[in-house]
Structures
1.
Amino acid sequence: MSDSNNQSTHGMMAEFDSVDSLLAAARRIRDAGYTKIDAYTPFAVHGIDDALGIKPTKLPWITLTGGVIGALTALAMQIWMNSINYPYIISGKPYISLPAFIPVAFELTILFASFGSFFGMLALNRLPRFSNPVFTNPRFDLATDDKFFLYVDAKDARYDGEGVARLLGDSGAASVDPVVEDETPTEVPKIFFTLAGVLAMVAIIPVLVVAMMRVTTSSQPRFHVFYDMDFSPAKDAQQVTTLFADGRVMRPDVPGTVIRSEDGFDIDFQTGVDMEALAAMDPARAEHLVRLVAQAPADEAAPADEAAGDQVADAQAAGGASEPVDNTPWLQDNPLEVDAELLATGQEKFNIYCAVCHGVSGRGTGLVHLRAQRIQSPTWVQPSSLHQDILYANNYADGKLFSVITNGIRKMPGYGAQISASDRWAIVAYVRALQLSQNAEESDVPAGQRAAVAQAE
Amino acid sequence: MNIEPENPTLRLPSPVARLAMPMMGVGAVLLLVGVLLGAIFSSVEMRFAMGAYLTAYTYCLTISLGALFFVIIQHLCRAGWSVTVRRVAELLMSVLPVMAVLFLPILATLWIGEGTLYRWDSEEWVAAHHPDWLNPESPQRSKGIYLSDWFFTLRAILYLSIWAGLALYFFRLSRRQDDTAEIRLTERMQAFSGPAVILFSLSVTFAAFDWVMSLEPIWFSTMFGVYIFAGGMLSAICAITVGVYLVQAAGSLRQQVTVEHYHDLAKLIFGFVTFWTYIAFSQYLLIWYGNIPEETFWFGDRQEHGWAIVSLILVFFHWLLPFLALLNRNLRRRPAYVCGWAAYVLLMHFVDIYWLVMPSVTESPTGGVMGVVTTVLCSLGMVGLFIGAVLRAGDGAPLIPVRDPRLQESLAFHNI
């Protein structure tokens, strides 16, 4: 860069009055074999890349790399967060759920590609820099006004000051000047360091305040930065409001609301009771049950249901406890066709909803029970073992088991609201299979698999 | 450069122009045979045949509509680069009146058959599945009214007249300018392009609801109109690219359309491939995440009985492959390469429309051998008719708007 003898020149700058003369000169310089050349114009000039012989930029590849890294980062981040570090089921989707990850992946692709473009552009142009020798000539300011400049760098292999100046002059330049050493000092001015120091000290203050707050106590109530986020104006269930005339926060169904029930509506299927037979025996109870299950019209609906449900549950489930004889005409058999698929569903639901208390084996030794024992909970009652004679199919109808799952019994809550009726029937089928599994003879095992059983023992 | 209207290199070469009537004739015959197969062979139901007709019709219609939007948007943003390719787009849109006539068979299914194509058209079906649509006291009555023969017909007439009107308006003014060179005509088209965009988007959205979405009368997606538009716009740009390339191959427009125009068309194809994917995925994501049975069944139908393969074809071959193929700038500046991918995307657009329409009509993705024959005949016939009509419109007109005030800008157009 610096010649040994005197003040060095960085290159030669030629000034032009029009786009056409600039383009013509650029082509000439290019054809003369110069490669380290550049043009400065007040606006984008079509065809200047070609005239300067500039090779296509590598920037798109940096952008592409940025985009690919962005997509991979987003996917890796979400997979790690949502399925490895903190596995969490959201909306019942799998842990690794590609569609849910795509929006974030898309955004990060764009972000990283933009970073690639922006910082790649800066890097390829060797920016930012404190100064550029081309600014030493005051006429160069006209590059943002109405003049066009062509610059040949001294680092070019073919560069010789006189020859370049002559060539540029011949190409129609209005003036040609050497670009001399930039005399702007290269050191950063002291004032910047002072300012940076002051800023750094000021920046520590909030941190110190926070640190102090952590170790001291205050009698003042907590300061709420976002008051309406700490105290949401939204109402909770069961609260009152002045917004509606009846004062209820929980709104009844709008008239005309369409009930989405399972395929068809079958009262026996929903209750586990042979309703026609019950209607013949005890019309009042049948009517009450029907009204409960079939979602009575809006005017006599909801609020009372909860309590009534408990009553009915007690009455229905009374078989074991208070009432020795249960006359209810329970459905004896599972209304669904029992096959491997149904049992698999039943097993899945059982393990989700029932096994925590009743245990995976159904012996009443689920995790909740084990924990209750460990902390010696005084109010805990051990969940029933499902492997008791009185609960087997010949003593305890399928419909009754269904009803217990639906409405609960003793300390067990009802699961009717959480598990759909067909899944409840699937659980009934699975419980039967579970019971059978504890009482199976060798002859129950298909002949082909007996050897495997023997081996397992 | 000679840009006189009489210059033969600015016109359709006569061997090509002479194909117009034969193509229309053969197209009409194929179409008729295709649909009649449905009536004759019991293995192909009439419903399937009309579904194939609707697929073929929607395919050509969306291309034509996309071309209409392309023309409108050029006027709206006063684009200079596109003038030399605008006439090809104008020819593609100028057949919208023909497309209006070709809608008649679909209307006929409403008035002649009962639920031949649209299930909601059958009173029996409505009474069995959605009695509330007929119940004056139910809020769902409005759906029954919306999906009634007469209202559907009225709306169809409205959409078709809006499109035919817009197409003829922009085509005639542009053609008149070839003779008179009035700048005022360009100003008029620019002034009308704003209202035209509004008319266009509303009518296309509702037509997409009516004609394709109502094949599943329960299903709804407010994004559906945009989805149809995205596919149509994409394929219209592809059709313009292929059209210009073929015209150049036949010897016309060699100097007027340059690599710069192909580069811009390729950028648009790339952009709209992405836009289509964006819309398609957004529609899928919302329904997938909401997971409401009334909405998910539509995608469910498209993941069963082999339709899953078609769905995956769309993901990988309607989006991923053309996306990667058109990513590189150097490749986008090769006219033959761009034309090849444009033709490819046009094929994928057919798969897309087939995937939209047919699962509502048939369980199996092909409909058996006769189903394939019906689909192919209907599609070839419709495309033949379409291309024939475009050639007929192009015969005798210069293939660039020779007196457009921005023509010089377009001829000298240069990407940086």
2.
Amino acid sequence: MAKDDNEKEYEIEYSEPVGILAAQSVGEPGTQMILRSFHFAGIESAIATSGLPRIVELVDAKKKPATPITYVYLSGSAGKNVEEADRIAKKINEVKMSTLVKRTVENFSKGTIKILLSKQELESEELTLGQVADRIQKVMKVEARAEDRYVLVKIHTKNLKEIRSTGVKLMKAVISGIEGAGKAVIQRDKKSGEFYIIAAGSNIEGILTVDGVDKSRIYTNDVFAMYRVFGIEAARNAIAKELSTTLDEQKISVDIRHLLLIADAMTAGGTIKGVGRHGLSGQKNSVFAKAAYEETVKHLINAAAFGEVDPMKGVTENILVGKQIPIGTGSVRLAIKKEDMSRAKPR
Amino acid sequence: MADEKEKGRCYLYLNGRIIGYLSDPEGYVAEVRAARRRGLISGEVNVAYLKKLNAVNVNTDRGRIRKPYIIVENKVPKLTAEIGEKIRKKEVDFNYLVRNGIVEYLDAEEEENALVAFSESDITDATTHMEVDVAAIFGFTINTSPFPEHNNLARHAMLANFTKQAEGMYLSNFNLRFDSRAYLLFYPQAPVVTTKAYDGINIQHHPSGQNFVVALSTYYGYNMADAVVVNKAAVDRGLGRSVFYKTYVDEERRYPGGQKDRFKMPPPTAEGYMGEHVYAKLSDDGIIEPEMHVEEGEALIGKVAPPRFLEENIGAGGLEEKMRDDSTVLKTGESGEVDSVVFTESTGATKIVKVRVRSLRVPEKGDKFASRHGQKGVIAMVVPQEDMPFTSEGVIPDLMLNPHSIPTRLTFGHLLETLAGKAGAVTGKIVDGTAFAEKGSVRMEEYSRALESHGFDRNGEELLYDGITGRPFKSQIFTGVVYYNRLYHMVSNKIQVRSRGKVQILTHQPTEGKARQGALRFGEMERDALIGYGASLLLKERLLDQSDKAEVLICKECGDIGYYDRIKKVAICPLCNSNSFAEVEISYAFKILLDEIKSLHILPSIKLNQ
């Protein structure tokens, strides 16, 4: 397609305050979001945080999202075969000891812990007592044996504290699946009919080690996990995508370029930074702009201690002192001094 | 142990505290109720069996909202025709019914155990009570609205608010009172369309509105979006005319050290003397006389007070000479006549003066009116009578309401009232508009017949002629009589303008608020809008030139702020004693910021570019 001659007109011009425009474009619809926070039925969105709390979580660059979710697509024939997909899901599905246990009995004189397991849970996770015992032995590095209805763990000590803490640690042991992958459920794409897996965790490093997982299509709403595995560019796209889907869910339409700008600003330094006082705002190079935002005295004292100089290049500090701001009309300067104009010769 | 005891039993709570367990909760509740109806225990005791919570709640404490119901036993209401006749003859009163187990009060919790029938025909086997009146399902306030069953509930909430704000005859002894603010309607009328609730509030003696002739029509776009148009001649005749009383109070306070305030004409030597014109209307004792016209800024009560701070040089002249003016002055935007002046004494034996100022409030553009259906409107135009539409009989509406305001708000009671009011007006009878008194269609038919018999259109429509062109309107216009309240929100109390004006001493920025003749704040979000648009010079004008611009001298040597010594006629830097300065425009707020930073023992310095 030929380039539109008018394309230039749609480009952002020098000194256009894109940040404020992005903030206003997200902020104004955001005010409506608080009022109508409705919930949907269904697994996917019922688990995920949505609406304003989710936006805040993203923009503040929270290390762990409140509800991490990973979308695992399957390579080869697994995407079309339920049994195969189910097998892979079983491999991913994280089963913690605590979900299987019915009751524990500690014997302090013998240094053993008797663990009574729920038959129902074992059946639903397709595990046997022997498998559980083997797994405990491997993970916890203790002696474990399957007896007729329970698992007997032997700890060669009579230290009460040690026995008790081993018991607590045992509950957290991952018996099967990938640690940090959470509960994995098979879903079917309504359009293509393809099977995929939704996991309620964000350990994509671990999930990627499972055979049959499509490494090119895995996605998680945990932007830090995306950053760790795929790098900063992927994290930037993930932030923009997450913002966009969260807004779409609430039927709020914001131009994607505003969201991309926010994502760009958050990731420009090579790591994910929030927009708050510990992130972007704290990194302004104007003392006054920082002091005007939060923790005024701290910034002023720091500036005094290190003899900082405010270059007066930003908007906030220029408004503060009463100068014209270097935006829009204020971004234009005379290239030649008035006095020199008289000496200029006409061609 | 407790488990064994509780097993299969029901908790018994008295005012929210567990006092025991019951094995037969239903029997217990029935027993308590029977005892209450027989008068063996107080009628203020309520008992409820809450199955879901497995609990019986007995409540006897104060603050519960309760409502009377007629008791129904074996499908027969206890209020028989016989007793009804006795009530009519005033042989027995309501308390008799309560005492004899005919009527009982239920609280919110006991209502959960009751099945209440609206009327005798609704009674089934399970019915336990019957409403005293069907209209009682609404509260008292909503029942002041005619035909409330035809309106949206949200509008009832608004009606409840507007009722509180209506002007009327709030008390008949208003002339003897010195309320700090009082509004009084000149010609209050009882509504043509009343309800049973009005019997209880003595509406004849304390009406709160007037019956307006209302045409439901647009008027050249002047009654768009909840605006209304009123007839100038009607206003001149006293429609919605009211008076506003405001009382100013001052006291001769005593201070520690034997000093005290004194009511008197402040001498020009007093500190804070506002000028001769301010005190011109005060009489010799320093207090204004009744029936004096006063304008804003004029003194009502002259008073001098001792100086705020004790100064060293008391002595020779004594305290008499040093006095501070502390007179009471009419606030900005207010004016009126002094209605009454009262001298009295406080409990602390100090003199008190109360001055009541009266100001006439003729309805004008911007004043607020509301009907009894949560339909409020603001006058957008006072139209000369000759320009208003008229009927062939010469009837000219007092008020024109935009018909678009009815369907979206679902206030069909407004339409019913219009028709009922018109029927009442032509027949000369008060119309009852109590909720559920009769079906809407039955009532409509009644009003239509009344109108027809007096030669009016049965639907209440009129052929109106345009007052400007003289031609009849293409469609007939629904016209009738509606009771309107004038609400106390008036422009004359709220209007405020300013171009340049007062500034705050500390910041040099414009003041805020009507009382201080303040400006409107150009806030952060407005600031963002200008930045977003790139209008940097406009932004600078708003935030600097029109606000707290200051010109300061900045030392070229050390960057501190210097000052101009007018005696030596030279600019001096207090830090380095240099004399070379640049004159720089900054915001005064920034100057304060620098001062405050200095107070933190941090030395800021300004580097100049040229």
3.
Amino acid sequence: MTSPAQASRGWDDGLTASFLAGDERALAAAYREFAPLVHTLALRSLSDRSAADDVTQEVFIRVWRSRNTFKPELARLPAWIVGITRNVITDAHSATAREVRKANAVAGAGLAAGEFGAGTEAAEVLADRLLLDGELDRLGEPQGSIMKLAFYEDLTHEQISRKLGLPLGTVKSHIRRSLTHLRSRLEVDHAAS
Amino acid sequence: MPHLDPEQLSLLAMYEGWEDADGREHLGVCPECAADYAALRRTVDAVKTTPDTASLSVPGPHVWAGIHRELGLAEAVQEDPLGGAATKPADSPAGPAPSNVIAFGPRKKAWWQRTGTWIAAAAAVVMVAAGGIWVSTRPAQPIPLAQAQLTPLAQYSATGSAKVVEAADGSRRLDVTLDKDEARGYQEVWLIAPDLSRLVSLGIMNSDSGSFEVPAGLQLADYPIVDVSDEPVDGNPAHSSVSIVRGTLTS
């Protein structure tokens, strides 16, 4: 697991089918792929290794028990797991509101984002990335192609306009709307958690 | 200058090198546009950046063991899917996964359902208060102003005590003694406000005891919590969020 592309594309959607069919090996595969991410997100939020262990357990227990509620047409499995992780972390916070207020207060005392080092930053970016994974394909065309050229090939909107034979204004407006859409995907997830 | 138009904002977020001096200047002075820009940047980062997943923390084998037991999974998937990964050295910034493999009976009670360390700390405070504080009346001797029992947090087991003494010249010193040094990185000693909203670093403690000057003018009542943290050697001056022991000073 060296890149998020591998992390998410490494997740074979065939495994999702096995997972939905109740194959325990698919749960083990999901754990192998995503437990470090889940653990790091929990550690970042709760600042307690044992709490992060508990959250990780709870996430995969919920993932397995509620697999019937997973809708593959709405999101990929990795994004679903990230969503459950945020919910479990929130539950941990509210169940222990008083203690966590204190923990967060310490966090507020200069222990904000990144205090655990690069790992937690990486976890947030990776979580965001998994949430957006597949979203470019869901944008439809020509938006998907425009955004891929902008994101992955660093083409300017003029270059994209020439390459795809689309008016400059159209390209600009697609970039704006697509970016706004992707942003809302991240924010909806965060609000839900 | 009016707010940036949404297309301009998108292009700025999308292309870091985008030449738009006026736009960038506006971002510097307009919190509203800056917030929008930050949210869009985060979206772009999520798609474009390759995070370093090698630095993620790896849960220990007991985590999978608990899941396996709770869900009653088959023997075929009994082994920790992360295999040897959990025993790899401390490349996770907050320290290595706990090496103590907890034998799971029934599923471990979630930490937020367990009695908090805070209650233990509070109990320790009560005990100290009940035990009474010895106050010297001999002016030549350092006068203990306050002391605390230090109790371990999370996966640590060190215990100890701390006391603040006042020298004849009025300067104050915090003496900390632990029964062992359990830091994976190094130990740092802090005084923290009761609501944990503020903290003061007193210094580094490389062995199981140390003496630290208390800043003149600092009211102990404002910072009564003594905390010894485990700090990675990462050049980051902030508290690592990983505490080894804590206790509250009482006088």
4.
Amino acid sequence: MRESSTGWLLTLPAALAFLLLVLAPTLAAVTLAFTDFELGAGPPAWIGLENFRELLEDQGFLKSFRNTVLYVGLVAPASVALGLALALLIESRAPLRGFFRAVFFLPVVSLTVAMASAWQYLLHPTIGPINAALRAIGIAGPNWLSDSSTVMLSLSAIGVWEGAGFNMVLFMAGLTAIPKELREAAHVDGARSAWERFRLVTWPLLGPTTLFVVTISLIRAVRVFDTVAVLTRGGPNKASEVLLYTMYTEGFTFLRLGYSAAITLVFLAIVLALMWVQTRVMDKRVHYA
Amino acid sequence: MPRPDRFEGMQVAGLILEDIRKGFGSTPVLKGVSLRVEPGEFVAVLGPSGCGKSTLMRIVAGIETPDAGRVTIQGRDVTRAHPGARDVAMVFQSYALYPHLTVAENIAVPLTMRRLSAIQRAPFLGGLFSAEQRRGIAADVARIAEPLGLTPLLHRRPGQLSGGQRQRVALARAVVRAPHVFLLDEPLSNLDAALRVATRREIVEIHRRVGAATLYVTHDQAEALTMADRIAVMQGGELLQLAPPAEIYDNPADIRVAGFIGSPRMNLLPAEARDDGMVMLAGRATGLLTRARGPLTLGIRPEAFFPAATGWAVRVAHSEYLGEATLLHTSLAGAELLLRAEPGLRATPGETLVVDFARAVLFGADGRRLGIEAAQHA
Amino acid sequence: MRDFSVPSDAGRRPSGRLGFAALAAAAIRPLAAAVASDGPRILILSVLGLVFLAPYIWMLSASLKPTDEIFRASMTLLPESWAIAQNYGRVLREVPIARYLLNGAIMCGGILFFQLLFAIPAGYALAKLRFPGRDAVFGFVMLGLLVPAHVPALPLYVGLSALGWLDTFAALIVPSTISVFAIFLFRQFFKQLPDEIIHAARLDGMREGTIVWRIILPNAWPAATAFAIFSVVAHWNDLFWPLIVITGHDHATPALGVLHFRTEEAGDDFGALMAASVLMTAPLLLAFLFAQKRFVEGIATTGLKG
């Protein structure tokens, strides 16, 4: 029939590109993870779970894994909470709404590498304005990005700065989807304070949006790479190694592609697990059909 | 486009449907529908929602393919032809105007597709090779738009039009190429009541001008009764009766037609034919004689009564004044009987009326119409 | 902060076209009036806003200062002696800014072109046409949505290297030409287009190809702009993939350019580094300020569906 041949004709270019550029390389990456493939080191051999056994004993990788978990644990909740607070504050009343929305959204559209440089200056131990301000009130500021005890904290702060505006915009879209009548009904029904109305109407109805924003924030945080690559390169002494940066150095600096692919699989497993949890919670909790 | 068949003495039927069957999954939607629409004839397909009337129309248009049966347009079998190759125009319920094109461009689309080659339709350069055709198209669009009052709107987009205006653009787009078959799918259902009455007339006039075999799908019996040359009453995927409006109203061939037409609809009372053919209602003779025996249904139109004190009287229990008429709630042989009185007659609760069995109709146990041999006054 | 649960549409300021100057002017006048009636809310937002703007403010400030002044670490924003020519001059002399920006534009344009070319027809077919295998194709789309772009990176690198395509525009563009997210987005968008319009087009004599060209494409604009903003912002700012496949300056993107300048040239010359950062951040930022509403809507709609 005409319609089916047209359907295939229109889908075919996309299907071929998907096969060639997504499906095949993804399956290849999964396969690579079970080999000892190194670029320029002869034909790869099948080594089963050897790469994963090595990962478990690799102090560098374990450090990187712990750092990623720490980063995600700090950045995701903080950027979600800040995004929600900003959305509620900005949407609550008209004055300066567009102006503040633009201000908090700026980091989303700014070149991360350039802004990382700006942060490097801001956080510089001697000439940075932050430590200068601390000195002015008599506190000796730490060496933010070169001290292993503060480096993850600093990177996380930058992560929150980058992500809050994005979450704010998603929350704003969720807020405008809540019918005004519901809040007015809550008002009439005696929910006097703004907080009561938030608890009664806004927060429950924002449930699906919140769950979605939480998931997307977690996944974005797991993908942290740019700031580490620009500011610390995993240092000092692997104190700021994160999964994707370790994968990058193993794969593209040391050319141990098999090992790097194994790290990629760990990364993929985390992302898939987060999405699985999201759909499970979505099915159970936050739908009001 | 030359159309010799229109000028020859012997006319080929505009649209013939033969035993059309269609099912979606395991549910049959059309159970063998046959229908013939002559050129210039206006046939309304009337039925409740879900009766298969829209599917029937979509099969004529080529949007759906029937599982079995044949669609013939102007003597050509088009059962499996592309919608664009059938010479069929359609007005959709939602009007289906192209949102990104102006009114003029919307109306011009069917002409552009037919009169210009692919090269001539190409952006920018195409205009160089088709100036003359494009002038012709613009003239045709203007000619169609004028009587519909669309001339001042030609440069607007559908989003800037009211419902009634959109409706007229859809009509203009459908008739601009003078199709052989003209389909309308509930075109008035999205208009308000006042506009609906005005547009009814407009559509009939357009139909007369175009002279196409017209199929008009509706669930509104007022539209079907006022506009159509013939009405095809459908229910449950079957064509129950195909006849002129007066015939459908006065002589329903099927109990389901009787139960659907009229406002309020015909009263249907369970009755029985005695061995001698006398129709009995709750054990009392009605004076109607039939050849059938056993249980049957007695149909009484709401207006089949006269104010009198003798005969089979019913008592008015409640009345509803509607302005142009009064509805009278009564009961007959234990069943509710709804009657409709002309404005002159002011029956108040408690009054008695006499049912006119001479104007009653009978339906057999299978639902088909039964003849009445004789009617004596009961 | 009288009521932070009731957004009202009344008085929503048109926030479309605002330049820097207009933005500042628009902010100050109503600010005074607003603080009077709306004090706590404005105050909290202003303090947070200053924190969010701090990197921009200090970046701009340092880009105007001479090196010795930066090293004095004073807390004044305006320089005592201006060093615009020195800092920006050095960047313009030593960094091929125009080259990087052009590379970025070529990369983003190329990626977006192919993404739309693949995704719009496929999205339409998946939304509106019945063909065998459609559900399987859509299943792969949903599966593809689960896989981050970093996963196929290693084999893609090996493949590009085998083809000898490393350090070319093809290496930047090709791997991102297919976006399952775009296919998904356009499918959802075309689903909302009434079937009747496509039926009407067929009755009017259009063939399937004509329908795509004349009906689907012109109506895809809202989804296409939203996706374009999402795609350009993502790829313009991306560092991961360019860092892998590009080594020299010839094909370096703005992100790579800043990184090169930082590691190879700038050293401790923060003034010049900040000047470079300002210049590289400016284009997308200005685009955002001029089309704020489209950006926010684009990111919100694509974000919520991704």
